[in-house]
Design goal:
Layout lengths: L8 H6 L6 H23 L11 H49 L6 H24 L4 H4 L5 H8 L4 H18 L5 H26 L4 H17 L5 H4 L2 H23 L12 H34 L1
């Protein structure tokens, strides 16, 4: 995602980073050339377009505008829902980390177990990101996995879901060994359920595109409108109808292309969600929580030893 200053209007006016102009310029050029041909034929009196009324295009333009509004709103709903789901992933991994660090009973192996669980929670968003982008890069998650954990995750068809299952299994083992009370386990388990729900919600957005019939109709309707918009304008505007066609095409096609850009928000395009940054933030937060907990436990042990002396 491109970061920008919304108050710096001049910089936003001239920047191309994140703009859809690169992806629509070829279509605008085609419609402009068609408009130039129509204007040339009319000016040379090869065809007479003086009697063509503008009412049909005005009515169709209103209908097309409504369709584009619906298209863009639907795409933004998907984008915003994806952002909320990733915000929930961030919150739930933080809550689980704090619970694990606070609730596990101090034991000789507790520190290593806490570190292992925190690392698994750090790896989960990374695996979710890779799942949504349909890639698999074990080097990205390898620093957070023990060999036995990596072996279990690599053998699964759904690595992110397998990670949640592994975390749940380890928490269950902690309860069985008396390192985690049943009441505290019940406090932590709903967060695993929320992470599963967020994972499923992201997959639903990723795997459910807009119906093909709606997409085809809108693109054909929009193309036909832009190809013929110069017909009712050329008699009154002459050669200026070429510029008017380019501007109308830029406005309408640009809005439609924005919907295309944001309807799948989990990629790595400039207008997609900053999943890499979110994963890095989660890693930093959880690592810091674990470090603070280890320092706190060390201070507690030292204070206990001093009191005994």
């Amino acid at each position: 995602m491109v970061e920008y200053d919304n108050k710096n209007w001049l910089a936003l006016l001239v920047t191309f980073n994140g703009s859809v102009i690169r992806s629509i310029i070829s279509r605008i050029a085609i419609f402009t050339v068609v408009s130039a041909v129509i204007a040339g034929l009319h000016q040379r009196q090869i065809i007479n377009l003086k009697d063509i009324p503008s009412t049909p295009w005005a009515v169709v333009g209103v209908a097309l505008g409504l369709l584009l509004v619906f298209r863009t709103n639907t795409a933004y709903d998907r984008f915003w829902e994806g952002r909320k789901l990733w915000g929930e992933i961030t919150n739930q991994t933080r809550f689980l980390s704090m619970g694990i660090l606070a609730y596990l009973v101090p034991h000789s192996d507790t520190a290593a177990l806490k570190r292992r669980l925190i690392n698994l929670l750090i790896a989960f968003p990374i695996l979710t990101k890779q799942r949504l982008r349909q890639i698999q890069d074990w080097q990205e998650v390898k620093p957070f996995l023990l060999p036995e954990d990596q072996q279990r995750i690599e053998g699964a068809n759904h690595s992110a879901l397998a990670m949640l299952s592994l975390i749940a299994t380890l928490l269950g083992q902690c309860a069985a060994q008396g390192l985690l009370t049943e009441q505290r386990l019940l406090i932590l388990h709903p967060s695993l359920g929320e992470l599963t729900r967020c994972l499923g919600g992201c997959e639903r957005i990723r795997n459910t595109p807009l119906p093909i019939a709606y997409v085809l109709h809108l693109k054909r309707f929009l193309s036909l409108f832009c190809l013929t918009i110069s017909l009712p304008m050329v008699a009154a505007m002459g050669w200026w109808s070429i510029l008017a066609t380019a501007l109308v095409s830029y406005a309408f096609i640009g809005v439609e292309e924005i919907g295309v850009e944001i309807e799948d928000p989990f990629g790595d395009d400039p207008n997609d969600l900053p999943l890499d940054k979110i994963c890095t933030t989660i890693e930093q937060n959880l690592t810091e929580l674990n470090l603070l907990a280890e320092v706190s436990e060390s201070c507690g042990v030292e204070m206990e030893l001093l009191s005994q002396k």
